[in-house]
Please model this.
Amino acid sequence: MRDLTNGGEARTILNFTLPMLLGNVFQQLYTTVDSVVVGRFVGTEALGAVGASFPILFFMISLIIGLTMGAGIMLSQFYGAKDMAKVKRTIATVYISLFWLALAMSILGFLFSRKILLAINTPVEVLPSAVSYLQIMFSGLIFMFGYNIISSILRGLGDSKRPLYFLIFSSIVNIGLDLLFVLVCKWGIAGAAWATVIAQGSAMFGAVLYMQFSGKPALKISAGELRFDGTLFKTMLRLGLPMGAQHSLVSLGFIALTKIVNNFGPAAIAGYTAAARLDSFAAMPAMNISMALATFVGQNLGAGRPERVQRGFHAALVMGSGISLFMTVSMWLFPYQLVGLFTADPEVLKIGVEYLAVVAPFYIAFSGMFIIGGIMRGAGDTFVQMCITLGALWGIRIPASVLLAGYFGTKGIWWGMPAAWVTGVTANYIYYLSGRWKTKVLVKTQNS
Model:
């Protein structure tokens, strides 16, 4: 566990961000390796099946991710205030509540996979493979949830290194099993799904063992301490539900976008899948800096050190902007080579490159939107963040994509994304300048 209330702000945030960033790079390797292996060795339709399945999986886990983020805010502020009793009670409450939620979502997702895929106009050529992939992924959803829950707890307490170690190991397992199941055993898309499930399980079990045997009293929860605290759960819901709803509705936006893309056929889905995998790597630095900033803000506000927050915010913006510019230039210089990692199909390649040409110049707007949002989340002001994000998505991105697709085909779909990012970063900055987020600090509210 790490105290983020002392030391240079830029160095503190950077040192906390790097393990999370590396961890998410390895986590993205789950789906990226699946896509590369499936696209190269199974075919375009199989690659499209992976792409059609992803937004549905994201939707199912979004609510739980939001709740874990709510718990992370609580833990960072309680830890900053040195209230270890509430730290342990919060961890126990998170374990109990999210286990049952995760189990329910896994069962529902498995049962209704085919109906959901049909509802979003998944092409018949892609449907059987997509159903198989999705059902296998849902069968192992509890592993993904378990790892993310423990990672959120550790990050809230200032430890961003341990989740990285578990992910490095599981990513190596995933790559090895992908090659074994798809190339050697010839299991096709099902083999890629099983490789991911087994790898995620290894990450979760490693994280569980660390929590119980790390020797840190705040992390070890005995059977007698595994009690549900209704008051803390209500606080977690108050903080987490807006973020959970935000993530869920954002993922519904991805489903809506996928439904638009599905109308253009398997090649469009495959091209979108390949480019979106690259897009996710470009987005990760901003998202991880934002998460680090939220923990930094939570600990410093909990410790009564608001003067560090603004300096940390400026440092985070500089870091995020620099990385975003680097990613933009990389996508401009090597689009064919990057998309070509996933496919040799000329039509798929053309669509993926077209996507990057439209979206990549606006990575800096995406970065600013997330990093400014990290300030509000760290303070516990999650409701306004939800409203801004959903307004940009459902008020700008989806309508623009639908409208422009009618005039410009797939290229019109992609323009909805930068339009939403520019709207989001502008609204977030205006709200940041208002200073209203400063009134939402959880520790002050409970101590008053």
Remarks:
- The chain has 17 helices and no strands.
- Residues 44-80 form the longest helix (37 residues).
